[in-house]
Target: Methionine aminopeptidase
Amino acid sequence: MVELKTDTSIDAMYEAGQVVARALTAAQKAADVGVSLLELDEVAHGVLREAGATSPFLGYRPSFAPTPFPAVLCVSVNDAIVHGIPGRYRLRDGDLVSIDFGAELGGWVGDSALSFVVGTPRAADLRLIETAERALAAGIGAAVVGNRIGDIAHAIGTVCRGAGYGIPDGFGGHGIGRRMHEDPGVPNEGRPGRGMRLRHGMVLAIEPMVVAGGTDDFHAAPDGWTLKTNDGSRAAHAEHTVAITDSGPRILTAR
Model:
């Protein structure tokens, strides 16, 4: 069931989204050669505490997970696509890092992600990240009243496939509101004109993921959470929480 949010509720979701935006900005700024992933998680946790917000990630356990998620920040490095658990690994020059973060404030949730390179970037990694960001922008551009979920999916997939990249099979965006994952699902590839019609008050987390090697296959790491590319190629991830409004898409997690 899809819950349509009131304008007042969307404003409240914006406040949660801005906590997410501040945490991602702080974590990216802290990411440097020699910094551990656990340290990045603590930076993000500090933003939560300062805002009086809580984490929808910490303790979250979907059906596929062997254990509850143990952190507030997902940190996925190089060939990790999403859901990376922060550990003692220390960042190295040239690492491609994707960070994903959520915050709950006043009963509403925001969710966003970004990718970047630590230290000296490779041109191929910058192109991968830029494609994920373009795909996100295309998806947001299609998130208008009267369009359908398939229009968002098609916009994202066209950018990703056009660049020659893979799209992890079965993973995409989702509705969001009182809970982190709500209906409807938002695929990263699909046919235009298909699926649920978009209405004022729908709020979606739109999140393209791209795999440099061009394949869609992935596997779970031994921790049961981290999803990694089968071919060992690098991946990038971009995400915003977006409200569908009569005046156009409103990015609630804008940085």
